[in-house]
């Protein structure tokens, strides 16, 4: 029979006549004490609540099944209405009679299933300090273990590798209790991430390390065997590459709440590569409670889950931990006996997804990014953003250098040290830490973790370089054949104080590597390192300590004695504690993932100098400042100090819109719509063009041309914000460097101040390319910030692109004719003073051919500088120039080069969206190579090897990983 719409009216009248019942008017979160309890309103009796919940569920079952058992529903409701008329209340007997009337539909009702998944959502330091996170974790897990002891059928699911580490560190007795429950199968470990991370801002390598390091820790320490669940309920959006990353790591399923406005709840999330995972989007909320109403929406869930007659209730107190309560368990056990209700079982996520596997092929496919949510989080708490970006870059550099050093020397990395540095960084990826939606204590803890990570990466970076430098046979360099007696170190040892100078120099703001001086005398040796898998010709800045020679006669040669282009940065000695230094630029070519050697010397005097006044005797002309190399010409406006022109000298195209300038923008945004999670509506967009000082060297060198502009920001602060912008263009570069040092004093009052850097783009198409974890994506113009890892690019009419690269920012905004990056968001909630202080930010305006691979390459190039370590003259077994691995062909980006027990691992992704191959050339003949993945499933495919070269097959937009024995 057809569904009787009058049933809804009858049920409404019955429910409204029951004392203590409150009808919902909208969606309500179920966690916490109900409002009735808060205000001491006596609830309906247990039998009243039972029958009303059964009736409401039965009504929806009837409707979903073409009116099945409508007659029984009518009869049950009529009987209850009669009882209300007669007795004024619903007696237990009347409720039992109504339930008996409904018994014919019992089997249909119980053919649907609800898994009750107990969970404790434990935010990592969201609104509190780390010690409170530890306390909340331990207290929560003790409660869960106690409940497990009392209720043998109760099961529990817990994510996040970091909480298990907390237990291991602080409570060994509790650890043994939990391990027993894991082995028993009642405690489900749903952790393939060290924390529940943001999925837009961590690099692809970071997300892969979440899987790899969480799995190894939980397997080795806790005996966990299953790692197929990506449990990220509160994460603020998901990059399109997440299915590719998860699938590559052997993860099959994902559970989330945010980032998908579609109606589908159960679907296949497919990456551009074609790889996919099965995903459940929570229909309600992940901090639910066990209530009589939890089955009411099940029929709608079934409809939005391709007919799967199964749902899941993720319940437990959070966000500060707590987990399932005794009330939840007692209610669940009682409701399991209700006949007119779904079949209810305690069970974890795997129970649900096992049921869902039966209909996998019928599920809809989602092949778009699950964004955007909380776009303010791409910028808020910018110190955290900087710490993360620089730590990720440093970890890449260290792993590549370690691979080079372990291949060529007896240096061996302490593996555990680097793994825990990674885990410290992964901890900060929690969706309320990296996002900046946290308080001062949380930020300070994160900054401490970045500092300890930098201590590890700096130490191992320097040790790897020193190991290599000690092995290089500098004594045999041809350049030393004509060395003069006074150049030899022994000639000046008596008065030498240079060795050991520069300790701790040049590593502030999470940039740079320790490079204390190891040379003496007039001849200095430098070993320059390149961590990228491409041969690079670039400009490296060398610091020369306590040099007693004549700086006017300094020159630089390679190991063969060829002259190297160089430029003095300092003509006067600079002081650092009790040592003096000068900086020298050298243009050098370095092998891929390799090193080369330079020698700084003093030429012989050809005449004795005469000193006359050389200063110009004419007035300065206040013209535009032009910075130009062989590829790019940049013009700095003489009035505003902003970039008025950026020309590709090869094509003649100016990428700055005519009559406009690129530079800093001061935004006044709406306070009501501003907080850590959101950039508020822009009220005023004010170009920062009060340039109080503009200066450039009268004579620019061939390797580096610079200009400096000082701006005063006309905000509302009593002490004006002052910002110094240094423009630099290096020889051979297609990117103008924009180095920003901001003494930011602005505070939110009636509006919230925001600082951006905006580029008006000539010939913009309104399409923008962004780097995302392990890939790229194209988006249209949008009136809000969107995430990008390292860069965004504005597509131009001729197919080329202007790339805006950052060393520490994530929030880009592509509008119809401009591209900007948000630098500082001063929203005052939840941290009332989030950004005041000194900010160091480096941007680059780069010109590319518009290809995704080119954008990735320029972003990597400027974010991974050439490094150096001072050396000296000694015997050794290594050549003065060498490398490890080079990407010589293929549309590929390499994201990791590492070594373990003599095996070199190279990982990357395909960049052009085409099936193809990449060719890797190694520095030694290859003994064997195989294609593999992170899943540890035993998958290994032998690869074609030809001498030193390995050919790697690549699927379009897919991640690849090869292991090579040399």
Q: Characteristics of this structure?
A:
single chain; about 950 residues; alpha+beta; 9-stranded antiparallel sheet; 6-stranded antiparallel sheet; 19 helices; 46 strands; about 25% helix; about 30% strand
Summarize the structure.
This protein is an alpha+beta fold.
Major beta sheet summary: 9 strands, antiparallel
Can you give the mean pLDDT? Answer: 94
Counting H and I runs of at least 4 residues, what is the number of helices?
Answer: 19
Radius of gyration: 33 Å
From the N-terminal CA to the C-terminal CA, the straight-line distance is 75 Å
Strand order of the largest sheet: 23-24-25-26-35-32-31-28-29
Which structural category do the helix and sheet elements fall into? alpha+beta
Low-confidence runs (pLDDT<50, min 5 residues)?
none
| β-strand number | 46
Give the overall form: elongated
Helicity, as a percent range: 25-40%
Q: What portion of residues belong to β-strands?
A: 25-35%
Overall description:
The structure is a single chain. The chain has 966 residues and is of the alpha+beta class. 26% of the residues lie in helices and 29% in strands. The protein is built from 19 helices and 46 strands. The chain has a nine-stranded antiparallel beta sheet with strand order 23-24-25-26-35-32-31-28-29. Helix 1 (6-16) packs antiparallel against helix 3 (46-64), helix 1 (6-16) packs parallel to helix 4 (70-87) and helix 4 runs antiparallel to helix 5 (92-101). The relative contact order is 0.10. The model has no long low-confidence stretch (mean pLDDT 94).
């Amino acid at each position: 029979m057809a569904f009787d719409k009058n049933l809804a009216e009858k049920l409404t009248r019955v429910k409204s006549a029951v004392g203590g019942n409150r009808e919902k008017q909208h969606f309500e979160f179920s966690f916490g004490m109900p409002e009735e309890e808060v205000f001491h309103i006596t609830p309906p009796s247990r039998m009243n609540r039972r029958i009303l919940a059964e009736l409401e569920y039965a009504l929806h079952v009837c409707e979903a099944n073409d009116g099945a058992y409508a007659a029984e529903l009518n009869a049950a409701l009529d009987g209850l209405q009669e009882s209300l008329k007669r007795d004024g209340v619903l007696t237990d007997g009347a409720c039992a009679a109504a339930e008996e009337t409904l018994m014919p539909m019992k089997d249909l009702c119980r053919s649907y299933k609800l898994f009750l998944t107990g969970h404790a959502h434990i935010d990592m330091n969201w609104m509190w300090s780390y010690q409170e996170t530890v306390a909340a974790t331990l207290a929560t897990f003790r409660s869960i273990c106690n409940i497990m002891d009392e209720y043998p059928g109760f099961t529990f699911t817990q994510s996040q590798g970091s909480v298990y580490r907390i237990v291991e560190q602080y409570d060994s007795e509790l650890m043994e209790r939990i391990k027993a429950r894991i082995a028993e199968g009642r405690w489900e470990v749903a952790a393939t991430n060290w924390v529940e991370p943001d999925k837009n801002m961590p690099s692809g390598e970071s997300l892969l390390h979440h899987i790899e390091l969480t799995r190894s820790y939980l397997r080795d320490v806790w005996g966990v065997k299953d790692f197929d669940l990506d449990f990220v309920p509160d994460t603020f959006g998901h990059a399109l590459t997440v299915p590719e990353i998860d699938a590559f790591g052997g993860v099959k399923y994902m559970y989330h709440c945010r980032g998908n406005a579609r109606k589908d709840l159960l679907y296949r999330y497919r990456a551009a590569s074609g790889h996919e995972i099965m995903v459940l989007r929570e229909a309600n909320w992940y901090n639910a409670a066990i209530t009589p109403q939890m089955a009411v929406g099940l029929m709608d869930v079934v409809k939005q889950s391709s007919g799967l007659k199964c749902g899941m209730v993720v319940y437990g107190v959070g966000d500060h931990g707590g987990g399932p309560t005794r009330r939840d368990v007692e209610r669940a056990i009682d409701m399991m006996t209700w006949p007119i209700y779904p079949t209810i079982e305690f069970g974890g996520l795997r129970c649900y997804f096992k049921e869902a596997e039966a209909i996998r092929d019928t599920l809809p496919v989602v092949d778009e990014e699950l964004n955007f949510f909380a776009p303010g989080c791409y910028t808020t708490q910018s110190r955290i953003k900087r710490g993360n970006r620089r730590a990720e870059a440093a970890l890449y550099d260290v792993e590549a250098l370690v691979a080079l050093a372990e291949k060529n020397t007896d240096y061996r990395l302490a593996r555990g040290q680097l793994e825990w540095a990674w885990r410290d960084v992964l901890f900060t990826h929690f969706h309320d830490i990296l996002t900046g939606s946290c308080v001062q204590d949380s930020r300070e803890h994160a900054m401490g973790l970045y500092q300890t990570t930098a201590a590890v990466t700096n130490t191992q970076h320097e040790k790897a370089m020193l190991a290599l430098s000690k092995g290089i046979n500098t004594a045999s360099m041809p350049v030393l054949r004509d060395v003069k007696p006074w150049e030899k170190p022994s000639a000046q040892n008596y008065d030498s104080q240079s060795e050991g100078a520069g300790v701790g120099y040049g590593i502030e703001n999470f940039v740079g590597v320790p490079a204390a001086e190891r040379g003496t005398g007039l001849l200095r040796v430098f070993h320059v390192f390149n961590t990228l898998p491409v041969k690079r010709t670039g400009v490296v800045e060398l610091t020369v300590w306590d040099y007693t020679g004549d700086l006017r006669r300094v020159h630089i040669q390679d190991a063969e004695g060829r002259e190297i282009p160089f430029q003095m940065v300092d003509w006067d000695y600079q002081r650092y504690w009790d040592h003096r230094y000068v900086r020298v630029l050298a243009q050098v070519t370095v092998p891929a993932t390799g090193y080369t050697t330079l020698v700084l010397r003093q030429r012989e005097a050809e005449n004795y100098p005469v000193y006359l006044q050389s200063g110009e005797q004419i007035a300065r002309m206040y013209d535009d400042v032009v910075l130009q190399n062989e590829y790019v010409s940049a013009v700095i406006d003489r009035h505003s100090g902003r970039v008025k022109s950026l020309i590709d000298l090869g094509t003649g195209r100016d990428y700055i819109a005519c009559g406009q300038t690129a530079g800093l923008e001061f935004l006044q945004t709406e306070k009501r719509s501003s907080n850590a999670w959101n950039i508020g509506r822009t009220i005023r967009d004010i170009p920062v063009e009060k340039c109080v000082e503009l200066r450039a060297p009268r004579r620019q060198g061939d390797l580096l041309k610079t200009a400096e502009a000082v701006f005063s920001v006309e905000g509302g602060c009593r002490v004006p914000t002052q910002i110094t912008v240094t423009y630099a263009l290096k020889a051979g570069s297609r990117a103008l460097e924009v180095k920003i040092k901001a003494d930011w004093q602005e505070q939110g009052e009636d509006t919230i101040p925001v600082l951006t850097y905006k580029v008006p783009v000539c010939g913009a198409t309104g399409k923008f390319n962004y780097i995302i974890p392990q890939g790229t994506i194209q988006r249209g113009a949008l009136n809000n910030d969107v995430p990008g890892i390292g860069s965004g690019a504005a597509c131009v009419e001729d197919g080329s692109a202007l790339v805006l690269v950052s060393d520490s920012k994530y929030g880009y905004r592509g509008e119809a004719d401009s591209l900007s990056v948000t630098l500082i968001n001063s929203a005052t909630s939840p941290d009332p003073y989030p950004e005041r202080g000194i900010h160091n930010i480096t941007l680059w305006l780069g010109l590319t051919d518009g290809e995704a691979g080119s954008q990735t390459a320029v972003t990597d190039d400027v974010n991974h500088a050439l490094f150096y370590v001072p050396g000296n003259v000694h015997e050794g077994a290594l050549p003065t120039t060498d490398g490890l691995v080079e990407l010589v062909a293929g549309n590929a980006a390499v994201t990791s080069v590492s070594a373990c027990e003599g095996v070199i691992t190279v990982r990357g992704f395909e960049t052009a969206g085409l099936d193809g191959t990449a060719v890797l050339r190694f520095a030694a003949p290859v003994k064997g190579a195989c294609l593999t993945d992170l899943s540890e499933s035993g998958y290994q495919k032998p690869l074609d090897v030809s001498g030193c070269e390995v050919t790697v097959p690549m699927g379009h937009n897919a991640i690849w990983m090869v292991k090579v024995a040399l």
